[in-house]
Amino acid sequence: MTDFEVEIFWPSALPSTPALEQRDVLRDAGVSATCLLRPTRRGPVAEAVLVLATSAVLEPFLSTLFGRLAEEAHKALKAFVDGLLSGGRDGAEVPSSVVVESGAGGRVTFTADLPDQAYEQAVGLEACGDRWVWDSRRAMWTPA
Fold first, then answer.
1. pTM value?
2. d(CA 49, CA 46)
3. Residue 59: pLDDT band with limits 50, 70, 90
4. How far is CA 40 from CA 18, 108, 109, in A?
5. 3-state secondary structure 112-134
């Protein structure tokens, strides 16, 4: 099985606990994972979390990696994203989205309001070089 490396780039203005917890989930599954704090930029604090994967394409990465965490990869992916977006403990702000990017530049943006169907489709998405967002009207991932 391919070894993966994952870097979680977390907004430094937010409490880092959710990022560290999800890094540990990945590590417990045998994935090399690090968490790096990104400097705060001007504007709203609720920035996106960037998850960078060394895998060239996202489809095998998402299905294989999250398949290691649970029998149903889409449920593990949802739990991972929800864990990163749950930083609002004690009234703290939360990131607006989680962007998963492959080494080849494919990007998939996850937000807190996605249905289970989005995660089911995401693990099979061939996202090479494109930026993908969920189209709720069409109930499918579309290139941005």
1. 0.82
2. 9
3. low
4. 17, 22, 20
5. CCCCHHHHHHHCCCCCCCCEEEE
Q: Are 96 and 133 in contact (CB under 8 A)?
A: no
Rg (CA), the chain: 14
- State the pLDDT at residue 103: 74
H or E element at residue 135: strand 131-135
Give the dihedral sign, CA 72/78/83/84: positive
Q: Using the structure block, give the residue that is written with the tokens 């979680």.
A: 8
Q: Token pair 């490396």 is at which residue?
A: 5
Whole-angstrom distance, CA of residue 90 vs CA of residue 107: 31
The tens digit of pLDDT for each residue in 124-138 reads 887 777 889 999 999
Query: Both tokens of residue 51?
Result: 């998850």
Cα separation, 134 vs 20, whole angstroms? 26
Mean pLDDT of 81-102: 81
